[in-house]
UniProtKB/TrEMBL annotation:
Protein name as catalogued: Glycosyltransferase RgtA/B/C/D-like domain-containing protein
Transmembrane segments: 85-105, 112-129, 135-155, 162-181, 201-219, 231-248, 254-275, 287-309, 321-340, 347-365
Superkingdom of the organism of origin: Bacteria
Entry keyword set: Membrane, Transmembrane, Transmembrane helix
Length: 562
C-alpha cells in the first residue's frame, strides 16, 4: 500500500511539474532562440548545397556548436514548415524527467522502498532552474547534453563493445549540443578507470580528442572570457554552482558554497574509498553509486570550467545552471541512503519528506512570480510584434541586429507566432469607449542605476502602482497598455504586480498584490507622450479595462510620469 501511494504521489508531482511548465510556456523566442530562426532562414535558400547546410549546422555561436538543437529545428521545419518554441520547451521537460529517471534507476539498486525516494522528487521538480525549463535553446542545450551524458553512463555499464560505441556516440552528441558536452568524456574515463578497464578508458580519451578536433574546425570565439579576478569569486562559483539548491534564502553565496563543499566532500570520500580498495577485484562501492559518482564528476568539471572562464563577470550562481545543483542534491541524498543507516530510519525519512516538501512549496512561492512575468512578457510581445514589429522581452539593439533574418523569416512563415491575447481593434475600441478614471492611481517611477559600462544601459525604469487596480486572480493576465495618440500605435507590457506576503497567500489565497508593475529600458519606446491603461484578461477571455489618470513621457532618454 505504501509503495502504491508513493508511486501515485510521484506521478502527481511529475504531472504537476510538467503541467506547470506547459501552462507558463509560450511559442515565442527569447534572446539566443533567435539562433534557430537565423539557421532555418539561412538554409531555406534553395541555392545552398548540402555542404553549405552542413557548415551552417556546425557553425559556432557564443562559443558553442548547437548542432543538435539546430537539427531538431531543421526536422521540425521540414515536417511543419515553421518553428514551435513551445514544442522545444516540451522536449526540455521530457529531458528533465528522463534525467531524473536515470537517478531513480540508481536509487532502485539500494533495494529500498520507493517512498524513500520521495524527498528526491520534491528537491528536483520545482522552478529553481526556470531559465532552463522556460527558455527553449538554453533548456535544450543543457538538458540534451545531460541526457546524452547519463545515457552514455548507462551504456558504459553494459560492458559490451557495441555499448561502448553507443556511449561514445552519446558523448559526441553532447559535445555538439553545448560546448560543455565534451566534459561528458572525462566522466566516462573516470567510470572506466574506477572499474580498471584501462582499454576502454584509453578509447574514450582518444574519442574525446577526435571530438575536440572536429569541434575546433571552424571554431569562432564568441563571449568574452578571461581568468577570475579574485579567489573568493572563483571558489564561490566553483562550489556554489553545485550547492545553490539552498539559494532560496539569504546569504546565497555563503550557503551555496558551503553546501557545494559538503556535496564535493561526500564524492571525494567515495573516491578515497575506491583508491583504498583499488587493488581488489571486488568493487568497493555499492550498486549504482559509481554511476552517480561519475555524473557528479561531470558536474564538478563543468562547474570548474565555468568558474575558470566565467566567474570574472561575477558568481555563476544563476538559474540557467541550477538543474545541475538539483541533480547534485539528489545524488548526495542517494549517497546518504547508501552509507549512513541513520537516513534509513523511518522517523528521519518522515523528517526528510517534510523538509523537502516545504522546500518544494517555497520554491514555487519564490519563483512563480518570475516565471509568470516571463510568460506575460512573451504574451505581450505577441501583440507588439504583430502590430509594431517590436519586442520588449529583449533589448532593442538585439532585435535591430536580428532584423535582417527575423523579418524575412516571419514573412516566410518560419517564425510564425500564435495570435496575441487581444487584437489591436479591441484595444483601440477599449481606449476610445472606456470611461476615464475617477480615481487617482498614484503611479510612480523607480530608477535603478546600473553604472556607465560601455555598450550597456546606464539605468532601468520601473513604472508601478501599488493600490489600483485591485488584486488580480492567479490565472488572469494583467497587461499595461501604452497608447501613443500622435501615431495611433499601442503597445502591451507585462503589468503583473508584486507577489503578496506569505501570510496573505495562506490566509486569503491572494498571490498578487493590488496594482501593477512594468519594466522599461531607456530605448524601449520612441520619444513621446503615452496614455496608460491596465487590461486584465481572465482564462475565459473576459476583459476588464482600467484607464489610468496619468501619462508616461519619454524625453531625452528619460521617463517621466505626469
Amino acid at each position: 500500500m505504501k509503495e502504491k501511494l508513493a508511486l501515485a504521489v510521484s506521478f502527481l508531482i511529475i504531472l504537476l511539474y510538467a503541467s506547470y511548465n506547459y501552462f507558463f510556456s509560450v511559442n515565442f523566442p527569447f534572446q539566443d532562440d533567435f539562433l534557430l530562426i537565423q539557421f532555418i532562414q539561412t538554409i531555406s535558400d534553395e541555392s545552398l548545397g548540402a555542404w553549405d547546410i552542413l557548415r551552417e549546422l556546425f557553425k559556432t555561436f557564443n562559443d558553442h556548436k548547437a548542432v543538435v538543437p539546430r537539427f531538431i529545428a531543421l526536422v521540425e521545419y521540414v515536417l511543419t514548415g515553421t518553428l514551435n518554441f513551445r514544442f522545444y520547451l516540451f522536449l526540455v521537460t521530457v529531458n528533465i524527467i528522463y534525467i531524473f529517471y536515470f537517478l531513480y534507476l540508481q536509487f532502485r539498486k539500494t533495494k529500498l522502498p520507493v517512498y524513500y525516494f520521495l524527498p528526491a522528487l520534491f528537491l528536483y521538480f520545482h522552478p529553481l532552474y526556470h531559465d532552463i525549463s522556460g527558455w527553449a535553446l538554453n533548456g535544450m542545450q543543457h538538458t540534451f547534453l545531460t541526457a546524452f551524458t547519463v545515457t552514455a553512463l548507462i551504456f558504459a555499464g553494459r560492458k559490451s563493445n557495441f555499448s561502448l560505441v553507443l556511449a561514445i556516440i552519446c558523448c559526441f552528441l553532447a559535445t555538439f549540443t553545448h560546448g560543455n558536452g565534451i566534459l561528458s568524456y572525462p566522466a566516462l574515463v573516470f567510470y572506466f578507470l574506477c572499474i580498471k578497464d584501462f582499454r576502454k578508458a584509453g578509447i574514450i580519451v582518444l574519442a574525446m580528442f577526435v571530438s575536440f578536433g572536429v569541434y575546433m574546425m571552424g571554431y569562432e570565439s564568441g563571449q568574452a572570457t578571461h581568468l577570475p579576478d579574485d579567489a573568493v569569486t572563483f571558489i564561490t562559483s566553483l562550489f556554489g554552482f553545485i550547492g545553490s539548491q539552498v539559494s532560496l534564502w539569504g546569504d546565497v553565496e555563503l550557503w551555496s558554497t558551503l553546501f557545494g563543499i559538503v556535496i564535493c566532500i561526500s564524492g571525494l570520500l567515495l573516491v578515497f574509498r575506491i583508491v583504498k580498495h583499488y587493488k581488489r577485484n571486488k568493487s568497493s562501492l555499492k550498486p549504482g553509486v559509481l554511476e552517480l559518482l561519475s555524473l557528479l564528476v561531470f558536474i564538478f568539471i563543468t562547474s570548474l570550467v565555468i568558474a575558470v572562464f566565467r566567474s570574472w563577470a561575477g558568481t555563476t550562481i544563476t538559474s540557467r545552471f541550477q538543474l545541475y545543483t538539483c541533480m547534485s542534491t539528489v545524488i548526495f541524498y542517494i549517497f546518504l541512503l547508501n552509507y549512513l543507516p541513520l537516513f534509513r530510519k523511518r522517523l528521519v525519512l518522515v523528517g526528510m519528506i517534510g523538509i523537502s516538501m516545504f522546500y518544494w512549496l517555497y520554491s514555487f512561492y519564490s519563483y512563480t512570480g518570475i516565471v509568470a512575468k516571463k510568460r506575460m512578457e512573451y504574451q505581450a510581445d505577441l501583440y507588439n510584434w504583430l502590430y509594431t514589429r517590436t519586442m520588449f522581452s529583449v533589448p532593442r539593439p538585439l532585435l535591430e541586429n536580428a532584423d535582417f533574418y527575423m523579418a524575412p523569416a516571419y514573412e516566410n512563415g518560419i517564425f510564425s507566432p500564435p495570435a496575441p491575447p487581444v487584437s489591436k481593434q479591441v484595444v483601440d475600441s477599449l481606449i476610445k469607449h472606456s470611461p476615464e478614471s475617477v480615481e487617482h492611481y498614484e503611479t510612480y517611477l523607480e530608477v535603478m542605476e546600473l553604472g556607465n559600462k560601455p555598450g550597456e544601459y546606464e539605468r532601468y525604469y520601473f513604472l508601478s502602482g501599488c493600490k489600483l487596480p485591485s488584486f488580480k486572480p492567479f490565472f488572469a493576465d494583467r497587461y499595461l497598455v501604452l497608447w501613443d495618440p500622435a501615431t495611433g500605435e499601442s503597445y502591451l507590457k507585462n503589468g503583473t504586480s508584486k507577489v503578496e506576503a506569505r501570510k496573505v497567500i495562506i490566509t486569503e489565497g491572494k498571490y498578487y498584490k493590488p496594482g501593477f508593475s512594468a519594466f522599461f529600458r531607456p530605448d524601449d519606446l520612441r520619444p513621446g507622450t503615452y496614455r496608460l491603461a491596465i487590461l486584465d484578461i481572465d482564462p475565459k477571455g473576459e476583459m476588464v479595462f482600467h484607464k489610468i489618470d496619468q501619462h508616461l513621457l519619454l524625453r531625452d532618454g528619460a521617463y517621466y510620469v505626469e
